Amino acid sequence: MAVAKKPAAKKPAAKAAKKPAAKKAAPAKKPAAKKAAPAKKAAPAKKAPAKKPAKRTPNAAFMKPLTPSAILAAVIGEKAVPRTEVTKKIWDYIKKHGLQDAKNKRNINADDKLKAVFGGKKQVTMFELTKLVSNHLS
Prior knowledge:
It is a single chain. The protein is mostly helical. The protein is built from seven helices and four strands. The chain has helices at 2-18, 25-47, 60-63, 70-76, 83-97, 112-117, 126-134; strands spanning 65-66, 81-82, 107-109, 123-125.
């Protein structure tokens, strides 16, 4: 990589030579800084392989299967599923039946099944969705 950086470093120096004579002092300082820069980059390169990135582990609470209530089971099914899958299945139901509001996509218009899940509300926002659904999980 140091070989690739040297040609790039020479380009600004060539441009500086075309500039007026008053600015010739500045390029003299740049080569000194360029020599120091590769030395600094070499040290972190040795340290980087020593570190191993930590793998992200999923939160066990999200993966725990929960049993839906009878009202919610009418929408997503009776099988116990994790909270994340419940949200996915509800969104699948909403998209399949075209219940997302056309003007404001953040709102969900409830049909008869979802109205029972949403506590009788005709329309809820997507941010309220998980709060209302969590009441039907055990």
